[in-house]
Every structure is written in C-alpha cells, then in structure tokens.
Amino acid sequence: MHTHKLRAASWLLASTAICSSPSWANTQHEAHVHGQVELNIAQDGNDLLLEITAPASDVLGFEHAPKTEAEQQALNTALQQLNQAASLFSLPAEARCSLQDNHVTHTLPSHSDDEHEDHDEHEHEHEHEHEHEDHHGHAEFSVQSVYRCEQIQQLGQLTLNWFSYFPATENIQVQAISDKGQTAATLKAAQPLFRF
Ligand SMILES: [Zn+2]
C-alpha cells in the first residue's frame, strides 16, 4: 500500500535533516530535553505522516515504570489521549484528511526491570531509587499518525493541540517535508499553528 512510500518519506526526512542540521542530528543520539517535543511531518502524494516524539516527563511527569496506582492511572490516561490523533492535531477541513493509522509507543522501563527494587521497601532506599532511575536514563513517547487527504493541496497548515493536553511542554520543534519543500519551525502554546 502506501506504507512503503511513507517509510521512504520518513527516511528521507531523517536523512536530509541530519545532513542539513548538525544540531538536529545530535538530538537523535543524545538525551532529550524536558519540555521539548519533536514533530516530523512527511507528505507524499495524498499521504501525510505525522510523527511526534516527546519526553515521558512531558507526558506523565516521570520517566520510570509506574510504581503507584496514580502513576499507572496517569499512564493509562496519557495512552488514551495519544491514541486520539484527531484531538492532537487540527487539520484544515477542506483538505479532507482521514486518519488511516495511529500508533503509540513508549520506552518506559517495564515492571520486571525494576523487580529487584520492589523488594526494597525500606524508607532509606529512596535515595538509591533515584540513582537507579538515572541509570535507566530517559524515556520517550512516540506517536505516528498516518492520514490520507483527498485535497492535500488545501492542507498548508496544521494546529497542534498538544499544549492543552501536556502543559509541561514548552516548545515543539517541527520539521516538514512536502511537495513544497522543507520547512521548520518552533511552536509554543501561544502559537501552535504550523504552516508548510
Ligand atoms: Zn527525560
């Protein structure tokens, strides 16, 4: 189907971004910055791929495996929100885009990774726990949304509703590749509209 073309577009987006912008390349390998989310947009014919990468701390407020009921609940709520691509992005109605596929993944450590910790229930282990988290490093959420737009020439812009769901995010770095060329921008809560 169109997946293969989109994958090519996604690859193109990644490779051209690395060639043209060293700072972008660094973010692929170094730890993310909390408060900074990345959005890659790839348009290929009538297909549109939106890919968000967000620090788990932006989404949940933590980057470890959920340990309490409240944390588990926060994760469930976040997954529900991220699965509703239609509420994360506002696309112009005249472009007549319909969501074909939405895929949410995260890199939070699983409970089993932390199993040895669960045996340590002493208060003084608390400090050790934080060290342990540091060793695990960061965790991220990724959302891939694939749209098919009947009037893709009418697209031209999209609004990110991300900030209203995840107020810990300070800015969103957007990179787009479309028939019109390559565009980049930084979006903030006060200015969540991206034109391309
Ligand atoms: Zn982090």
UniProtKB/TrEMBL annotation:
Highest taxon in the source lineage: Bacteria
Pfam families assigned to the protein according to its UniProt record, in alphabetical order: ZrgA
Keyword Disulfide bond among record annotations: no
UniProt keyword Signal, yes or no: yes
Region entry Disordered, spans: 104-137
Transmembrane region(s): none
Keywords, sorted A to Z: Signal
Biased composition, class Basic and acidic residues, residue ranges: 111-137
Span of the signal peptide: 1-25
Stated name of the protein: DUF2796 domain-containing protein
Organism: Photobacterium halotolerans
